[in-house]
Amino acid sequence: MKHTEKSVDAKKSDFEKHELTVRKRTLKQAYDAHWHDYFEIKLILGGNGTVTINGQEHSFKKGSLYLIMPANIHSFESESTVELYNVTLRESIVFDESIIRKLSGFSELFFELNDEEFQNVYYILELLSAENSNDNEYKNQITKNLLECLLLTLIRKSSDSYVSCDTYSTSVQIAISYIKTHFREDITLEKIASLLGFSAGYFSTLFSKSTGKTYIKYLNDLRLDYAKTLLSYDKFSINEVSSMSGFKSYSNFLKAFKAKYGTLPKSHQKGKEQ
């Protein structure tokens, strides 16, 4: 099932129509494995616990910061009362396409900030929260600039683990970032080509030459890797995993999974029978 966190704040701003929220939270409870279709940033202000992102467990404390990408599977467990800054946003409010491309290239999602980095990020979040909660003149422009400043700070922090796709053409970079955030949806080659203003045939050739994979191969590999991660949890049936990973046909999913990993999905599943 899809987990959706309820917002405490009832007041809505223009940017919240696009689902930008910035707020301090105090958490005592655990959150089981879930995912959502927007970006989420958490800065830990106090307390301890663990967060698991795509099967990788991290211990957090004051100064820890992590980024949840759309469709990342994550769970949260606190060892004490946890205070944090929480930001949620959709890619539609990030106006600089290069930022989205770089976010899509992150290979590491969890960071430990030093004292200076923590103070800088905290200051940005304080300004962003204040601006997002009022209706002052130039609010949207200032909010946009602060948000991009926050994201660029994360990109700079992640420079050692960033998987660059700058060797690709700009068009292919845009396609890859879109695929990585929408791979669970029905995104055909024709749809991506149309978004870029290309014919399907031209885009297919361009994508294959740039990535070394056909569009379908690239898309299915993302879906299968995601399915394998889902199978490591004990809460989803194989049929659910197939659907959640973007496959329309259960039989095609089984065939593709066996071709990629050499075994059927049930051999990767823990705690459930097919």
Helical/strand content category: alpha+beta
Named at the architecture level, the CATH assignment of the largest domain is Sandwich
Domain module tally = 2
CATH class of the largest domain: Mainly Beta
The fraction of residues in strands falls at 15-25%
Shape: globular
The helix fraction, in percent, is 40-55%
The CATH topology of the largest domain, please? Answer: Jelly Rolls
Report the radius of gyration as a whole number of Å.
Answer: 20 Å
Largest sheet: 5 strands, antiparallel
Mean pLDDT: 82
Uncertain stretches of 5 or more adjacent residues: 1-18
Brief sketch in words of this structure:
This protein is of the alpha+beta class and 274 residues long.
Structure description:
There is one protein chain. It contains 9 helices and 9 strands. By secondary structure, the chain is α+β, with helices and mostly antiparallel strands. It has 2 domains: 15-157, Jelly Rolls (Sandwich); 170-268, Arc Repressor Mutant, subunit A (Orthogonal Bundle). The strands form 2 sheets. A 5-stranded antiparallel β-sheet has the order 1-8-3-6-9, covered by helices on one side. The protein has a 4-stranded antiparallel β-sheet with strand order 2-7-4-5, with no helix packed on it. The radius of gyration is 20 Å and the shape is globular. The two termini are 17 Å apart. The relative contact order is 0.11.
